Amino acid sequence: xxxxxxxxxxxxxxxxxxxxxxxxxxxxxxxxxxxxxxxxxxxxxxxxxxxxxxxxxxxxxxxxxxxxxxxxxxxxxxxxxxxxxxxxxxxxxxxxxxxxxxxxxxxxxxxxxxxxxxxxxxxxxxxxxxxxxxxxxxxxxxxxxxxxxxxxxxxxxxxxxxxxxxxxxxxxxxxxxxxxxxxxxxxxxxxxxxxxxxxxxxxxxx
Length: 206
Hints:
- The chain is an alpha+beta fold and about 210 residues long.
- The protein is built from five helices and twelve strands.
- It folds into two domains: about 70 residues, Roll (Archaeosine Trna-guanine Transglycosylase, Chain: A, domain 4); about 120 residues, 2-Layer Sandwich (Transcription Regulator spoIIAA).
- It is about 20% helix and about 35% strand.
- The longest helix has 18 residues.
- It starts with a strand and ends in a 12-residue tail after the last strand.
């Protein structure tokens, strides 16, 4: 799959080279790559003013944050294999830090998966796809979570107000298994009952 280029203005690649993942709409050279040419969530090769590629980002022309870098390689888009790899890395980190399977498994940019939040409640996962780029990869995200964790239940709590800024509708959907009315978790030796569908955000604040 050949990706369209997203050109930046002169010197606007400095933040990306320093590790930042966001591209603002006023940093894009719209003469060379009009934002109106991109569909929300479309992936593109980010190119500096000097013509050197900086990686792959998904684009939303309707958002102030019009690009979010998903790969430092111009030939590696965010696809099923990269999703699985990143989720495995995130899982390995949490397993080193927590002795029980109750934690935020994926936290967006912190795990190099901008727009994706996944909370783990044992065998139940609750995810939020907060950007157009992640919404387009919805099926791939669900499949990757199944591949890595094989959960009994996956719920998409896509009722976050952030989605409206991306031009996305709000919805809640169970895509794998059935949702228990409450799940029981343990934090610091204390047990809690969590209502996944009615609690704040993903049901709990990890």
